[in-house]
Write a structure and sequence with these properties.
By secondary structure, the protein is α/β, with parallel strands linked by helices. It has eight helices and seven strands, in the order E-H-E-H-E-H-E-H-E-H-H-E-H-H-E. A seven-stranded parallel beta sheet has the order 3-2-1-4-5-6-7, with helices on both faces. The longest helix has 29 residues. The chain is globular, with a radius of gyration of 17 Å. The chain starts with 6 loop residues before the first strand and ends in a 6-residue tail after the last strand. It binds NADP nicotinamide-adenine-dinucleotide phosphate (NAP).
Length: about 240
């Protein structure tokens, strides 16, 4: 089995940002467990491409996530990426909408960290990279549940960084801007154009823009960086 430090688990690795993170980590020589929930074919093709493995687990399911982490033998690098969004007025956000967002974005992060951290503590080494969002920092109108869930991940990052630093584990958060993935396929052209205009570099982000930062945070070059929220947003949040 590949040594602990060169094993990575990426939740929601089948598409979008997670997929790009799997590719970037694969290029850096990691053996990547590509987690997926619905997109089996995409995950399996990707795993084949990077000589990793695809494993199904709904991140909402504590026991399935336990099997995912156990099956990998733990991993030195954990990318907490699986997430869903929702665009709704707050007054139309029903309890089940709120719970759905939190169960994937927040409970999912808890589940995978809860199972992966003991392996890292045992090895006295680990890199946890949590994908939040600039909306978790700034708040987005009509995305209250999503913004709140992504803000929760920022609190989680900072608290975990303090608790796990003495165990040789760094925990950082990436706050992407508007990235061109399926998640934004609901947005119409006019909205996308406005978002592009509000981005100082005048383009939407690519999944690779986030993945490069993820690969850096997973590397030895980032060993003194922890508890940070780092933007990859083309300057949107400035
Ligand atoms: P995406 O293209 O919609 O991909 C979402 C990924 O999450 C898929 O691989 C999906 O897997 C996985 N996923 C969803 N629910 C899951 C569950 N219950 N269990 C396991 N996996 C699950 O989205 P994306 O844009 O790449 O977003 C990835 C992360 O970046 C999310 O956390 C998102 O909030 C964050 N983000 C995105 C943007 C953006 O503009 N796109 C900006 C800031 C932050 P399956 O298809 O296999 O179900």
């Amino acid at each position: 089995m590949t040594e602990f430090r060169k094993r990575a688990i990426v939740t929601g690795g089948s598409r979008g940002i997670g997929r790009a993170c799997c590719l970037a980590l694969g290029r850096e020589g990691f053996y990547v467990t590509v987690n997926y929930n619905k997109s089996r074919e995409a995950a399996e093709l990707l795993a084949e491409e990077i000589s990793g493995r695809a494993v199904k687990a709904d991140v909402r399911d504590y026991d399935k996530v336990c099997e995912l982490v156990k099956g990998a033998g733990g991993a030195g690098v954990l990318v907490v990426n699986a997430g869903i969004s929702q665009i709704k007025l707050f007054t139309e956000t029903e309890p089940e909408d709120w719970r759905e967002i939190f169960s994937v974005n927040v409970d999912g992060a808890y589940n995978v960290c809860r199972h992966a951290v003991p392996y890292m503590v045992r090895e006295h080494w680990g890199r946890i990279i949590i994908i939040s969002s600039m909306w978790g920092v700034r708040g987005a109108s009509c995305e209250v549940a999503y913004s709140a869930s992504k803000a929760a991940l920022i609190g989680m990052t900072k608290a975990l960084a303090k608790e796990l630093g003495p165990s040789g584990i760094t925990v950082n958060c990436i706050a992407p801007g508007v990235i061109d993935t399926d998640m934004n396929s609901e947005l119409d052209d006019k909205t996308l154009e406005e978002l592009r205009y509000d981005t100082p570099v005048m383009r939407l982000g690519k999944p690779e823009d986030v993945a490069e930062l993820c690969a850096f945070l997973a590397s030895d070059r980032a060993e003194f960086i922890t508890g940070q929220v780092i933007s990859a947003d083309g300057g949107f949040s400035v």
